[in-house]
Write a structure and sequence with these properties.
alpha+beta; Helix Hairpins; SH3 type barrels; Alpha-Beta Plaits; 3 domains; 3-stranded antiparallel beta sheet; elongated
Amino acid sequence: MDINEVLDPAAIERAAAAVIAMVTTYGLRMIGAVLLLVVGWIAASWISHAIWRNLGKFKRVDDMLRGFVASLVKYGILAVTLIAVLGQFGVQTTSFVAVIGAAGLAIGLALQGTLSNLAGGVMLLLFRPFKVGDFVDASGQMGTVKHLTLFFTELANPEGVLLIVPNAEIWGKRITNFSVNPVRRFDIPVGISYSDDIDGAIAVLKDVLAAEPRVLADPAPDVFVESLADNSVNLVARCWAKSSEWWPLKSHLIKTIKVAFDAAGISIPFPQRDMHLRVDAGTLRAVLQNPAEPPSQAR
């Protein structure tokens, strides 16, 4: 190549114009991308912080749920910002979004169970059917709630065994919370013999309930006849107590009732059945006249 062609002022001018145009174009795009990143980051941080702060005004919203929602919004805004930045450099964002959507669908199908647990955890944290320390029956498992996460719940059953239950199973089934109410009612069924004095037995039961300070006066305790069974007259001693005391109180009352009944001479019958054998006279006469031969003489 001739040096004169390289140093041709017109060629140099054209090259300089091309470089200036390229620098101007991509420089402006770079500046725009940086501005988008800065604005997107500031917006994501501000909005996520506002969500965290406002959700804290609701007592039913757990801190874990607040953090999850705030982070989800923040990274969603950053993802949109990243797509906009790529668009500044000529990247086909439509196809990019389609690829991300397809990948998200594939991941969602692969992690269907995990996402179900996540959704269940969000609902549990949002509606709060129980809290840590409550004794619950969740998904057929009974125990004290030890820890609640977005994916599973930890329960300690009465035997001291740690149960890890997926949140999807808990949210999709009935939940019984034994601790949410401050007081709890319980019944103690007691059977007495048909020969015993019903009014006397009722009076003994009322005295036992009245003498126990842990039995609440309001609602008032009650004793009534429930049924006439095969072997006993069934009475029920009904009372209310604090939820934290009902189990030891119930055990104590059962023992006290037994001791009081023994002192009053009131029996608690056990199941029994009378059997009546019917034999016609001819068969009985034949058996008496021809007794069976002793086994030692059998031939």
